[in-house]
Specification:
Layout: E1 12-13, E2 21-22, E3 35-41, E4 46-50, E5 60-65, E6 70-76, E7 81-86, E8 91-96, H1 100-103, E9 109-112, E10 116-117, E11 125-131, E12 134-139, E13 148-155, E14 160-168, E15 172-178, E16 181-186, E17 191-195, E18 204-205, E19 210-214, E20 220-226, E21 231-236, E22 247-251, H2 254-261, E23 266-267, E24 273-276, E25 285-291, E26 296-301, E27 307-311, E28 325-328, E29 332-339
Parallel strand pairs: 5-9, 14-18, 19-23
Antiparallel strand pairs: 1-4, 2-28, 3-29, 4-5, 6-7, 7-8, 8-10, 11-12, 12-13, 13-14, 15-16, 16-17, 17-19, 20-21, 21-22, 22-24, 25-26, 27-28
C-alpha cells in the first residue's frame, strides 16, 4: 500500500508480545532510521507499539480495538490518528490521539475507540491507499449481484467524506497510488491494473487504462512503491496451502521498465528480483513495505504456523535468503510503514 513519508517513532503490530531476533550477529544492531511499522491483525483486534531504534532492545505497548477483521490502515503521526478499514463494521474508522506515550508512558495496555467513521458501508474491503488528503479503498463483491468497487474519501481535520464510488469488472487486492495513478492487483493472477487520473474520473463503471503482467508471479497479493528509488515491491502468495512457494518480488527502475513494455505488456522475469525459498520463511506474504533509509524490506506473512519474517536488512537479491529479523505472529492482514 502507498505510505506517508513523515516523522514517527512508533512501530505498531498486531500481537501483545513481540519478540525480534537478529539472524546475523555480525550486522549492526542499530537501525539506521527510526521506523513506524503498523501491523494489523484481522482476528484479534490488537496492535502493538514497538520501538525499533535498537533491534536487540525493543519495547512494546498493546493497543486493543473492539473492531476485529481489519484489512487496511494508515497512521498520521502529526495528527496522531489511525485510519482503519474494518470488515466487521463495514466502515472506514478513524482513531484519534492514540500515542500511548502521551496517554500514559508507564502503562502498556490500552483500549482504542474510534472517533470518526463514514455513513456509507464498505463491504468486503481489501486494501487502502492514500494520496494527499484522498483515501482509496478497494472492495470485492459480496454476492453474485454485487460489484467490485473503489471508494474515494476526502480526509479533513475532523471529517472523512465519501466523494466517489467506482465499479470495476475485476476483483482487486493490494493497491497503491502514485500521484493520481492507481495501481491495483487483480486477484488470483499475476496482473496489475492501471487507472490513470483516478480522481478526475466520473462515478460509475471504471475501466482500466492498462493491465500489465509480471512474468514469473503466480498469485499477487501485496504491493508498495518507493518513489525515491523507483522500485516496485510485490508479494506473491503462490499456492495458499503451501507455506514455502511464496515470494517477494522487486522491480528496480519500475517506471522505466513499465514505459518500455507499453500497453498490455509483460514485465519479463529477467527484469525482476525475487526472494523465495525455505530460508526466507515468507509464509503467505500478504503485504510488504520498504524503508529506503535503513534499506529494510518488511514482509508480513500469514502462514499456518503463525510465523512472520519481519525484515531483510539488505537490498533484496535473487534467491533464497534468510530474514535478518523475525517475529512470531498470527492473523496478519497488512502492514503500514513510516520512516523518519
Amino acid at each position: 500500500m502507498k505510505k506517508f513519508i513523515v516523522p514517527s517513532v512508533l512501530l505498531l503490530s498486531a500481537i501483545a508480545l513481540v519478540s525480534f531476533s537478529n539472524e546475523d550477529e555480525n550486522i549492526d544492531a542499530t537501525v539506521d532510521s527510526r521506523v513506524a511499522l503498523l501491523k494489523e491483525d484481522n482476528t484479534y483486534g490488537k496492535m502493538d507499539r514497538v520501538h525499533l531504534t535498537d533491534k536487540k532492545n525493543t519495547t512494546n505497548t498493546t493497543l486493543k480495538s473492539s473492531k476485529s477483521n481489519s484489512v487496511g490502515l494508515l497512521y498520521d503521526p502529526i495528527k496522531d490518528s489511525l485510519t482503519e478499514v474494518s470488515r466487521s463494521k463495514n466502515n472506514v474508522l478513524v482513531f484519534e490521539n492514540i500515542d500511548p506515550v502521551k496517554i500514559d508512558p508507564v502503562k502498556h495496555d490500552f483500549a482504542l475507540a474510534s472517533t470518526l467513521g463514514t455513513n456509507i458501508e464498505v463491504k468486503n474491503a481489501r486494501d487502502i491507499a492514500v494520496s494527499g488528503n484522498r483515501i482509496v479503498v478497494s472492495s470485492e463483491a459480496s454476492s453474485p449481484t454485487d460489484s467490485n468497487r473503489f471508494y474515494v474519501y476526502e480526509s479533513t481535520g475532523n471529517s472523512l467524506s465519501l466523494t466517489k464510488v467506482f465499479e470495476t469488472d475485476s476483483k482487486h487486492l493490494g493497491i497503491f497510488i502514485d500521484d493520481h495513478t492507481l495501481y491495483a492487483i487483480i486477484a488470483n493472477s499475476n496482473s496489475i491494473a492501471v487507472y490513470n487520473n483516478i480522481f478526475d474520473k466520473a462515478d460509475g463503471l471504471l475501466t482500466a487504462d492498462d493491465v500489465f503482467v509480471v512474468e514469473g508471479a503466480n498469485s499477487l497479493r501485496g504491493v508498495t512503491y518507493d518513489q525515491l528509488e523507483d522500485t516496485l515491491f510485490l508479494t506473491d502468495v503462490g499456492d495458499p496451502s503451501n507455506d514455502r512457494d511464496d515470494a517477494v518480488i522487486t522491480i528496480n527502475h519500475f517506471s522505466v521498465k513499465y514505459g518500455i513494455i507499453g500497453s498490455y505488456g509483460v514485465l519479463a522475469a529477467a527484469d525482476t528480483k525475487k526472494i523465495t525459498g525455505s530460508k526466507s520463511m515468507m509464509g503467505i506474504p500478504v503485504d510488504v513495505e520498504y524503508d529506503n533509509i535503513g534499506k529494510v524490506l518488511y514482509a508480513a506473512g500469514r502462514n499456518t504456523s503463525g510465523f512472520m519474517p519481519s525484515g531483510f536488512t539488505t537490498t533484496p537479491t535473487l534467491g533464497d535468503v534468510a530474514p535478518k529479523m523475525k517475529q512470531s505472529s498470527s492473523g496478519t492482514s497488512g502492514i503500514y510503514l513510516n520512516v523518519e
